[in-house]
Amino acid sequence: MLNVTHAAVTQAVRGLEAELGVTLVRRAGRTVSLTEAGEALAQALGEGFGAIAQGIETLRQREARRVLRVATTTFIAETHIMPRLPDFWARHPGVEVAMSPSPALAEFERDGFDMAIRVLADGWVARSDQEVRPLRRTPLLATAAPVLARSGKDPQDLPWVMGADSQWDMDQLRVAGLDPNRLQRVQLGSPHLEMSAARQGLGAMLATEIICLPDLEAGRLVVLPVTGLPSVTYAVVLPKGPRRAAVDQFAAWLATIF
Length: 258
Prior knowledge:
- The chain has 258 residues and is of the alpha/beta class.
- The protein folds into three domains: 6-65, Arc Repressor Mutant, subunit A (Orthogonal Bundle); 68-129 and 240-257, 3-Layer(aba) Sandwich (D-Maltodextrin-Binding Protein, domain 2), CATH 3.40.190.10; 139-231, Periplasmic binding protein-like II (D-Maltodextrin-Binding Protein, domain 2, 3-Layer(aba) Sandwich), CATH 3.40.190.
- The protein has ten helices and eleven strands.
- Strands 3, 4, 5, 6, 9, 10 and 11 form a seven-stranded mixed β-sheet that branches. A two-stranded antiparallel sheet has the order 1-2.
- A hairpin with a 2-residue loop joins β1 and β2 (31-34).
- The longest helix has 30 residues, at 36-65.
- The radius of gyration is 30 Å and the shape is rod-shaped.
């Protein structure tokens, strides 16, 4: 629907006739019919609008099939989102989801991500081109396997499992009263192995409660007496602007599982 009046259409047609110097319609009382020139123009316009409609539909179908790309952190992807993905697919069949676990901040346009799930410390400020939806606030905990916790050692003297880029962890331990420069650090080269190493007693580890809660409840990890650690906020970060329906569907689903 163009939502224009008959008079406006008549005026537009007459203006086009004046511009082209040719009669497009015959008017006989209330009867209007196309001239030969009008028929030719109508056919050309029909083909043009048909091509536009087909282009729009092709783009719509392509975007509907495009994989939803989510940048996130390794631990939240493995321990919290992946086990619950079947629920999302039951609600939204056909939406493919690809998660890219990495501590690096995603540049949506450059890297091709549709959204990011991040841990935000207090004072974090969203960029003007991003929309941030908080999901859950959770405390940061110092954890270790029971066998390591029973060693009787002070947390300062325990080995600590840390990634190569662990400056944030070291800053939090410093605030909690430990000297990170004197810590025995266990580096495994892959964040996928860090939680497993902590479970096996190879070292203590900082983890948000939402990540380590299943291990705490199962007794695979315990909380160490390290006070002064902060709470952080998990949030979904979206680029501002038009988005596919699948992006908002996944973001809304995340709010139900955190």
